[in-house]
Design a protein that fits this description.
Blueprint (H helix, E strand, L loop, with lengths): L5 E10 L8 E5 L4 E5 L7 H16 L7 E6 L10 H9 L2 E7 L5 E2 L9 H13 L12 E4 L2 E4 L15 H5 L18 H11 L2 H9 L15 H17 L1 H15 L1
Parallel strand pairs: 1-4
Antiparallel strand pairs: 1-2, 2-3, 3-5, 4-5, 6-7, 7-8
Helix pairs in contact: 3-8, 5-8, 6-7
Length: about 260
C-alpha cells in the first residue's frame, strides 16, 4: 500500500528560484529539510497533483525520487516574513502542500559528464512520455546526481491536459511529439523492453491507488461541476488510456531517436 507521511513546516529557509510558483527550502517538525511546492503558487493545486502523481508513479516504477510528503502550513506561519510576495504566497498556501526531501549536496545532472545506461534512460523517457512531461530537456533536466546515482525531481509540468480540462481523451491518445526534446532520448535504446515491463507494473489497481492519494481539497479549482471523485475518475481514465496505448508514444520516441541520430 502506498502511503505518504504528513509533516509540519516550522521554518521557512529560502526560496529556491524565481518564478510564479516560488518553491522553497523549509524545515519540518521531523528534523528534515524539504523542497516545498506551494498550493498558493501560480497554477494552484494542479501543480501539486502533477507532482504527486508523477513522483509516486516514478517510485512505483523503480526510479529514484526524493521522499514525497504532505507538508502542512499552519495559519500563523509566515506572518513575520519580510518579503511581501513570499508572505502572500505563504498565506495563500495554508493547509496541505507537497514536499520533497532535500538532497543535500546533490549536483545538477550533466549529460556530458555522465551518461546513463540505455535501460535507465529508457525507463525515464518512458515515464515522461507516459505522463506527458514537457520539462526534462537539455535546458532544464530536472535530474540530480546524488551519491553517484540519478534522481528525478520536479514533475509539476506533467499531465498538462488538466490546465484546460477539456477533451482529455485527445491528450490521452497523444503520441507526445515533445519527447524529441528529452535530454535522455539519445540513450534510450530499450524502450520496447521497458514498455512491456511498465505496462504490467501499472495495473488498474495501482493507477487507482496512486490517484486515490490526491487530497480532496486539491481538487476544488473553482467553476468545475465535477466532484473530487469525478475528477479522480478522469485522472484514472487518462492514465489507463495512455498505458493501454503506449505504442503511440513509444513509436514517436523511436522515430525521434532515428531522426536525431
Amino acid at each position: 500500500m502506498i502511503e505518504l507521511r504528513t509533516v509540519n513546516v516550522i521554518r521557512y529557509i529560502t526560496p529556491l528560484r524565481e518564478g510564479g510558483s516560488l518553491p522553497a527550502l523549509a524545515e519540518a517538525d521531523d528534523g528534515f529539510n524539504y523542497v516545498v511546492k506551494f498550493r498558493g503558487g501560480g497554477h494552484g493545486t494542479k501543480v501539486l497533483v502533477s507532482e504527486l502523481i508523477g513522483g509516486i508513479t516514478a517510485k512505483l516504477l523503480g526510479l529514484k525520487i526524493p521522499e514525497l510528503v504532505f507538508i502542512n502550513l499552519d495559519e500563523a506561519f509566515g506572518r513575520s516574513e519580510g518579503d511581501e510576495e513570499i508572505q502572500d504566497l505563504l498565506q495563500a498556501s495554508r493547509g496541505l502542500n507537497l514536499g520533497l526531501h532535500f538532497l543535500s549536496g546533490a549536483l545538477t545532472f550533466d549529460p556530458v559528464a555522465w551518461q546513463p545506461d540505455p535501460e535507465l534512460a529508457s525507463r525515464i523517457v518512458w515515464l515522461d512520455a507516459f505522463l506527458t512531461n514537457v520539462d526534462r530537456t537539455i535546458k532544464n533536466t530536472n535530474l540530480l546526481m546524488w551519491k553517484k546515482e540519478l534522481w528525478l525531481i520536479d514533475h509539476g509540468s506533467t499531465l498538462y491536459f488538466h490546465h484546460s480540462w477539456e477533451n482529455w481523451e485527445k491528450y490521452a491518445l497523444s503520441p507526445f511529439p515533445q519527447i524529441k526534446d528529452h535530454v535522455l532520448l539519445p540513450y534510450a535504446g530499450q524502450l520496447e523492453k521497458i514498455d512491456t515491463e511498465y505496462r504490467q507494473l501499472l495495473s488498474d489497481a495501482k493507477i487507482e491507488e496512486i490517484v486515490s492519494l490526491i487530497p480532496d481539497d486539491w481538487l476544488g479549482w473553482g467553476g468545475e461541476e465535477e466532484t473530487p471523485a469525478d475528477i479522480r475518475t478522469i485522472y484514472e481514465k487518462f492514465l489507463k488510456t495512455r498505458r493501454d496505448h503506449s505504442e503511440l508514444f513509444i513509436k514517436e520516441a523511436q522515430h525521434a531517436r532515428k531522426t536525431s541520430l
